[in-house]
Design a protein that fits this description.
Organism: Sphagnum jensenii
Protein name: SPX domain-containing protein
Strand order of the largest sheet: 1-2
Number of strands: 2
Distance between the termini: 49 Å
Helix content: over 70%
Strand content: under 5%
Structural class: mainly alpha
Order of helices and strands: HHHHEEHHHHH
Shape: elongated
Largest sheet: 2 strands, antiparallel
Amino acid sequence: MARTEEWLDMKCFHEAIKDMPSLYKEQCLPFLFLRKQIDRFLDPRVVLTEQIASFLKLEAGESPTLYCLPAQPSDDGTPKDLSLEVNQFTSLLNLEVARMNNFLVSTHRSQARAANHYMLMRQEAERRQKLIKPAAFPHGRVRSEELEEIRLATYRLFTYMYQLIIFSKINYKAIETILQEHDQRTGSEITSTYMDYVKTQDFVTFREAMITETELCFILTL
């Protein structure tokens, strides 16, 4: 029964991202890949593939700030190392979190620059329109073609900004879900500790600023 509920979680994840721009989908958490790695970790006949091992080694060398779970106390209170499997799995998640951070931050910054550019374009277009004599509008002033084009472009930008917020929320939940599945199947208890780490990451902490800027962008579409 538990397995059915887990699959429903994954189906909900893919349902939630299906309408996202292709570029956003490509940057989402690879749910199936991580689930298969749990299967591999639980299979005593299979060792970590050379491809993943070399990938982790390279990433660890280039990113010294990768998350690492602290040693857990044993029954007698002395520290003990976590299993190799747990550290391998969290290392895979580290890579995904770092990738999502980079994608969201760079995308957010480019969107903020675009929103500012459209705002300046609109101000200039409105200034020029005010210079037109009222006689040119016998039935009252109407939005110029230039202003309408700017409005439509701004609205398209708004939809992308809104989808980036959804990207942040969905992937936060996806990480939590795959961790819960990992703990359930392996007997580990890393979800709470790792999620505390995730809450400090850019793809989560940038969300409030993104919401504010997206609301401002929507105002420009009116």
